[in-house]
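Handout, page 2. Input:
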Amino acid sequence: MINSFKNFLCYTLPLILYCGMIFYSSAVPSVLPQSESIPHLDKLVHALAYAPVGILFFRFFRFFWFEDRIRLAVVLSILAASVYGATDEIHQYFIPSRVCDMTDWISDSVGGAIGTLIYYRLIPSYNAER
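Output:
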């Protein structure tokens, strides 16, 4: 019982909280003016925001379901981050002063993939299993 609660706190709760934070920030109407002083800065921000989504999905899938199939955990983590990004963009369609943008979703997906792959490469115990 204690281990399952600890596992929830370490692997599930961070994923839920971070995705909840993204959902909440997407639900707030944008009050900042759109600035194009740095072209495509918003795409970089999307990618940076979704890199932790990929990492957290990877940790979740790796620990709970795919301990012995790391490549499957990597692929599912990238797909899950991408799907979450798509649902976030759809959600923004219904929020005043927000837009549903395909290029934002692509940036979310790329960020999730980069986060997953960097985390996978930086963890020595994962690389030793390859």
